[in-house]
Amino acid sequence: MLDESIQELASRSFARIAAAASPEALEAVRVDAVGRKGALAEISKGMGKLSPEERKRIGQVLNAAKQQLEAALDARKQEFDEAALRARLDAEWVDLTLPAPGPRRGHLHPITRIQRELEDLFVSLGFTVLDGPEVETEYYNFDALNIPPDHPARDMQDTFWLDGGNLLRTHTSPVQVRGMERLGPPLRMIAPGRVFRNESVDASHEHTFYQLEGMMIDRDVSVAHLLYFMKTLLTAIFQRDVTVRLRPGYFPFVEPGFELDIQCLICGGPGCPVCKHSGWVELLPCGLVNPNVLRISGIDPEEWGGFAFGLGLTRLVMMRYGIDDIRHLQGGDLRFLEQF
Amino acid sequence: MKFSYNWIREMIPGLTEAAGPLERLITMKTAECEGIEETGALLAEACAARVESVEPIPGSHNVKAIVDAGALGMKTVVCGAPNCRPGLLTAYVPLDKKVVHGIESDGMLASGAELGINRDHDGIVELGTLEGCAPDAAIEIDNKSITHRPDLWGHHGMAREVAAILGLELTDPANLELLPQGPAAIKIQIEDLDLCPRYSALVFENVTVQPSPLWLQYRLTAIGLNPINNIVDMTNFVMAELAQPMHAFDADLLHGDTIFIRPAKPGEPFRALNGEDYTLDPSNLAIADSAGAIALAGVIGGGDSAIGAKTTRVVLESANFQASSVRKTSSAIKLRTDASMRFEKAQDPVNTVRGLARAVELLREISPGIRLVGGLADQMREMAAPPAIELSLEWLERKLGRATEPAQVRRILESLAFGVTEVQPGVFSVTVPSWRATKDVASKDDLVEEVGRMLGYDSITPRAPLVPAAVPPGNPARRFQHDVRNLFVDNGFTEVYNYSFLSEESVRAFGFDPAEHIRVTNPIASNQELMRASLLPGIWKNVTGNAKHRESFRLFEIGLEIHRREQGLPEEIPHLVAALYSRHEGGIFELKRVAECLLPGARTVPAEARGYEHPARAAAVHWKGAVAGRLFELHPRFVETGRAAVLDLDLRLVESLSGDRTKYRPIRRYPSSAFDLSVIAPLREHAGQLEAAIASFAGPLMEAIQFVRQYAGPPLVEGTKSVSFRLTVGSPERTLSSDEITAIRTTIILRMRDLGYELRV
Ligand SMILES: [Zn+2]
Q: Are B151 and B435 in contact (CB under 8 A)?
């Protein structure tokens, strides 16, 4: 009698589980069938009248039916959950080809980029990076560099003079002197920075541009060492093997002084318009530090020697990126700056 | 400076290298060449020809001329020159055969300019002879590269270099035996032998002033000088050959029998050869006769005693002046001449009489019948031989980085006229020739250069130095600025570089005082005369410029503000200025967010707006107890097309407050609690001030306070708003009880009420 009721309830409930159209309908089946006040609970109430053996047997039948129904309910519920998740995921479709909101990354100035590259390079070679003022005294810009007043070499650099008698540094070389005074020998330093010359501006001339000064002072520093550093430097800058040559050049703060040329990177030597058909491109002035400059900076030239060079950072930037008009660099036009 | 190849070759009989290879050798060993200019190409084929007959051509100003071209035979040419006349000896060039006016013209008669001999275009050249005129090449040397070489301002000096490079013999064009003996016909009185170490002069009579022979005109023209007359051309020739400037006075126009070399008198008038009148002062060295200044020493001669067509007697000056004195005078009166350019390089006093000797020889040829009057007038300072320099092979190797044979050192130095004595093995005592001793060569390092360049620097092998591996001293300020750049670039800002110069106008536009700016005394233009004491005017220009092309953008600059100081060098303060522009909405809070990335915990404290700031959108940026800069929108007057938010920070200050001072604290073991408080306040009350007030009442158990939201509108009373904050409280030692939390909350509410604020509970 009870067996039949259980059987009937089970088969009716299985049919309802299969037919449940929503998680809510399924929950109603659960409550009706296996809930605390559901049909199975109702049946178990009638078990009191049974013999102990019979009660034990019916109890087992009831339990088995309950387990089967609960398993079916859970399985059905999982089906609903999965369907719901699928529906949610599908609804959450986005178009990932749309642009991300917010600003794009900005751009470093090309001079900053190359300057940093060189700073890192020299630091890796044991050089320190020094700064000096843009407004300089006549002493540091000229006298201490072996260019006394009324020396014709002062004409080599058209100078901006300021009221009060100071000037805008015409080169980064004053930092040599400041570096020697501050740190003393031995010394390996570079000084990148802004310099000024009183020249009218056109596509290839600026009154404001950037140089990178370099200097090494040690016990024995020779032209062979200078050549080694210049070759190492330029190979790293141009990321290829470069051929360099030295020829005489006059700069009062070095002796001997050189112009350093590199073999033309465009034609490789036979000559082209870039190298004016000479096969060589003038790149930087350099030399052994003039003993007078060492002495002025309190260093004994019998004991110490050094080399110095001045790299035209602005020119290097123009070469690297193929910039044809120097005025862009300080023009502040984003259409130019965003290319870097 | 231009050098004539033919002129150099004249002094080096063995020279076979052509101008091209020679230019390269000079560049590698001596001085930088800037190019070669061919001159006198037509002279290759030109020959002297006599005009035999001239026939007019009807309807044309040209004539048909028959000329006797010597070996080339009789030629018929059509010529347009007004001076084409029978009997004229001129130059014929067998080029340009064509039919003109129906006449077959076989070749051309050439003008001086066409031949490159002089600048005369007015007619065909009138010849004595074409001898000495051949195609030439002018080698142009970069003046800067011979600044230190007084001797290279003449052909003889350059020829000496060439002879040394090629190991050839050099001849000397000056023959001192030509100088006359006996008492001089003019007296010389030098007041200051430092300013004028030597003054030499000769007097000539029976002088004929006339055009120079063509060879002489051609020499000068080839190197860019203008032929004038034989006397002046001769002085220019000697200057270009021996680097010795000279000047010729008309002796009959001088007063008295003495030439004085003395400082000018205050206000002394002087009329120069160029027609200009100058007022001199005692810093100028004058050449004077008894009546007054007749020349400005080393710079220019006087107009009143100049050589003219009537000149028959000449005083020829060949002197030496102090370089810096000449340079000072020349820059003071803004007149640079071929003479001053040479004297300012410190010329050799020995050279004055060599110049005169060369002049005697030339004048005999170009002014026939000329006679010397008296002997050489010559006054000079005592000339001590420069001390010998000791040079060791060891020093040479230490500096060049290669070994050199003693014989090689000797050969090189001797070829450049140094005297070389080996005082002990490997050590030389070197004497310096007078023309290198004035300023150029004074130390063993100067000799290293002489030997090095002649050996050729390509003979030195690059070698890595042996130096200790050491960590170089850091540059934290620069490192910091690079980090700031990265931050702004990562947040969408593009870096700009602006000039250090500002116009008075833009300075005034920002309400700054031009008088407080450092002024450039020789600006490139009148709108670039002040040194920037703020980066703002530059950034403003960038904003308005780019606003023409863009709806919105972000940019920044890191640069130096330059501020006047009472004395010494000005103060240079690195600043960051960042701008965020949009045509539509303002971006000041986005800029504030980026600023806080750099300055975590910074506060923007409302401040009185400056003239260029939006009066209701300006604040000072406070960080770690200091005012680090300003955050504001540019006044709409400055940016009419949109809004520009600007951040201006003192990076020196910010850097000094930055740095990694992180110290670990254990993570709290007991949970914190949070509660919200909403303050009712007038609409323009600053949330930051409310937050600060609440925080100050919260006591030591407060961990954090955070703005949540603010609201205005019903049911709040009009003109008020509700500002909500979330407070987090806790203790490292225990979990707070609800009573403790309530106590904190109550304290805050009561204290805020004391200040007049109601709280929505
Ligand atoms: Zn090339």
A: yes
Per-residue exposure over B597-608, b if at least 16 CB sit within 10 Å of its own CB, e if not:
ebbeebebeebe
Whether CATH 3.30.70.380 fits B673-760: yes
Contacts of B499 (CB under 8 A, 6+ apart): A208, A330, B528, B532, B538
- Which residues numbered 154-193 in A keep a CB inside 8 Å of some CB on B? 155-156, 160-164, 166, 168, 183, 186, 188
Q: What's the Cα-to-Cα distance from B217 to each of B133, B306, B366, rounded to whole Å?
A: 10, 20, 11
Q: Measured between CA atoms, how close is A258 to chain B, in angstroms?
A: 9
Residues of A whose CB is below 8 A from B474: 128
pLDDT tens-digit series, residues B347-404: 999 999 999 999 999 999 999 999 999 999 999 999 888 899 999 999 999 999 999 9
Domain extent at residue A46:
2-91
Closest CA to A287 of A327, A313, A259, A325: A259
Q: What is the pLDDT of residues A204-243, one digit of tens each?
A: 899 999 999 999 999 999 999 999 999 998 999 888 888 9
Residue B313 to residue B374: CA distance in whole angstroms: 13
Put simply, the answer to whether B465 touches A149 (Cβ < 8 Å) is no
What kind of architecture, by CATH, is found in domain B176-380? 3-Layer(bba) Sandwich (3.50)
For residues B174 and B339, the answer to whether their CB atoms sit within 8 Å is no
- Tell me if A99 is assigned to some domain: no
CATH fold of B42-115 reads: OB fold (Dihydrolipoamide Acetyltransferase, E2P) (2.40.50)
The full set of domain ranges for chain B reads 2-40+135-166, 42-115, 176-380, 389-459, 476-657, 673-760
Residue A175: predicted pLDDT: 97
Binning pLDDT at 50, 70 and 90, where does residue B761 land?
low
Find out whether B519 and B552 touch, Cβ atoms under 8 Å.
Answer: no
Report how many Cβ contacts below 8 Å link chain A to chain B: 239
Any idea what DSSP says for residue B520? B
Helix axes B230-242, B155-166, angle to 10 degrees: 40
ipTM of the complex, rounded to two decimals: 0.88
The reported pLDDT for the residue numbered A1 is 67
What is the C-alpha separation between B114 and B124, in angstroms, rounded?
9
Residues 76-135 of chain A with CB under 8 A from chain B are 102-109, 111-112, 116, 119, 123, 126-131, 133-135
| Torsion of Cα atoms, A75 then A79 then A82 then A86, to 10° | 170
Report the SS3 class of residue A141.
helix
- A197 pLDDT tier (thresholds 50, 70, 90): very high
First-to-final CA distance of chain A = 90
| Residues of chain B contacting A332 with CB distance shorter than 8 Å | 496-498, 538, 541-542, 545-546, 555
Q: Is residue A97 part of a domain?
A: no
Q: Given strand A305-312, what is the order of strands in its sheet?
A: A128-129, A187-196, A208-218, A305-312, A280-289, A254-263, A244-248
Cβ contact A152–B323 (<8 Å): yes
Residue A295, chain B, CB below 8 Å: the answer is no
Q: How far apart are CA A329 and CA A332, in angstroms?
A: 7
Q: For the stretch B341-367, what's the b/e string if a residue is b when 16 or more beta carbons lie within 10 angstroms of its beta carbon?
A: bbbbbbbbbbbbbbbbbbbbebbeebb
Do both A295 and A158 map to the same domain? yes
Fold of B2-40+135-166: Phenylalanyl-tRNA Synthetase; Chain B, domain 1 (3.30.56)
Contact B505/A at CB under 8 A: no
- The answer to whether the Cβ–Cβ distance between B553 and A334 falls below 8 Å is yes
Two structure tokens written together for A73:
């309910």
Is the pTM for the entire model greater than 0.90?
no
If you classify domain B476-657 with CATH, what class do you get? alpha beta
Tell whether B515 is within 8 A of chain A (Cβ).
no
